[in-house]
Amino acid sequence: MAFSKVVSLPSLFLAISCLLLPFLLAFSEAHSHSYVPSSEHIVKGLSLSFYETKCPDLESIVRKHLKKVFKEDIGQAAGLLRVHFHDCFVQGCEGSVLIAGTASDPSEQEALPNLSLRAEAFEIINDLHELVHSQCGRVVSCADITALAAREAVYLSGGPEYIIPLGRRDGLTFGTQAAVLANIPAPTSNISHLLASFAAKKLDVTDLVALSGAHTIGRGHCTSFTNRLYPTQDPTLDPIFADDLKEICPEKNSTHFTMLDIRTPNRFDNKYYVDLVNREVLFTSDEDLYTYEKTREIVESFAEDQELFFEKFVHAMIKMGQVSVLTGSVGEIRANCSVSNSNNPSLVSVVVEEDYETAAEL
Ligand code: HEM
Fold first, then answer.
1. Ligand 1 pocket test target in 189, 215, 298, 323 with most atoms within 8 Å of CB
2. What is the pTM of this model?
3. Which ligand 1 atom sits closest to the C-alpha of 187?
4. Tens of pLDDT along 61-93?
5. Which one, of 198, 195, 347, 210, lies nearest residue 276 by Cα?
6. Ligand 1 lining (C-beta closer than 6 Å)
7. pLDDT (tens digit, 9 = 90+) per residue, 220-257?
């Protein structure tokens, strides 16, 4: 097993060493169980207690703020979860997707697959970053804030609570438009493309099916799925569901959107897999998980057993969240998540920055 599922707080205390205790106590509002990765699944340089002394309230600051944000608009949870995926798949989980570009120097954000990322998600990450830095100094990376925000998005939408390794550093540059296109799979992707794309990140077939379960929350725009409606209707689509989609998207380029999970659109649960079994999902990339025999078995098992889905989802998220991370002295801790430090006019020099980081560590 990749991690232990801890059923109650007393058994949690027995199972985890004293070192982790203060960290775990931060989860005073925990569901009845939390998922904890075991040490062999944590990459070198990351740790479960990374900010224990540098920023002990980090996780409660993030949770408290996001609770307020999601109370206003639960859709933002989906936006944050997707940003973490798009960050990790291009140059690794090092916050490169957060950097804003310019007309002459377009960033990852301007690449086609990222145009439907929610602008608010970047603002929320910047707000969190500012909040955390006002309390702890510039010690927490934007990449870690993004990973924590995704984790909270899952938990606060009704999904599993889990603990993630921290200690990521921020990348210095963003990826090219070509790198985004090559690494973020399109919704029109078929199963072999999806499997290859995930395998390139060392994510296996179960990880692919489990991570696609993130489509239990959030929305999709017509242009992401009208390939299945026009000019010919995809025979794998449930016909009544297809008629509903045609009403929402009367033509190929309609600018409307609809929810990804028709059963419980804002709740993180296993209903996406029930949608799949009923051929009521939006994208070819979703549908193919049911059409292909090997993934169909996994889909069916998740549709029947939500706990199993949660377990595999957490395992896969922890894996995805550690793809090509920067650790130690590689990269930087950005002062502003939208700008790398070398382009940040408010930072006087790299020397000042290093002094700042060292001082904050003391
Ligand atoms: C398996 C390959 C995947 C493909 C092809 C894919 C594709 C897409 C597309 C096209 C959208 C809708 C964009 C729009 O039209 O607005 C979307 C939404 C979303 N995706 Fe994925 N996705 C994949 C995997 C993932 C993974 C691994 C995660 C996270 C772990 C994820 C999380 C989300 C979320 C939460 C939304 C809703 C976003 C919102 O409401 O703003 N997706 N995805």
1. 215
2. 0.90
3. 5
4. 999 999 999 999 999 999 999 999 999 999 999
5. 210
6. 75, 78-79, 81-82, 85, 116, 118, 185-187, 189, 194, 211-212, 214-215, 217-221, 224, 257, 260, 283, 285
7. 999 999 999 999 999 999 999 999 999 999 999 999 99
C-alpha of 66 from chain center: 15
In the chain the domains, ranked by start, together with CATH numbers, are 40-179+324-361 (1.10.520.10), 187-320 (1.10.420.10)
- Give the Cα separation of 52 and 30 in Å (integer): 19
What is the rounded average pLDDT of the residues 204-230? 98
| Cα–ligand 1 centroid distance for 93 (angstroms) | 17
Task: Give residue-wise pLDDT tens across range 102-119.
Answer: 889 999 999 999 999 999
As given in the structure block, the two tokens for residue 197 are 């794309």
Alpha-helical regions (H) of the chain: 9-15, 21-25, 58-72, 75-88, 119-136, 142-156, 177-183, 191-199, 205-212, 239-248, 271-277, 284-291, 293-304, 306-320, 350-361
Q: For residue 50, give the 3-state DSSP assignment.
A: coil
- Active site positions, annotated: 86
Q: How far apart are CA 362 and CA 355, in angstroms?
A: 11
Residue 23 Cα, ligand 1 centroid: separation in angstroms?
31
pLDDT of residue 257: 98
122 C-alpha to ligand 1 centroid (Å): 16
* Residues 301/270, Cβ–Cβ less than 8 Å: no
Q: Tell me which residue of 195, 234, 229 sits closest to 212, measured CA to CA.
A: 195
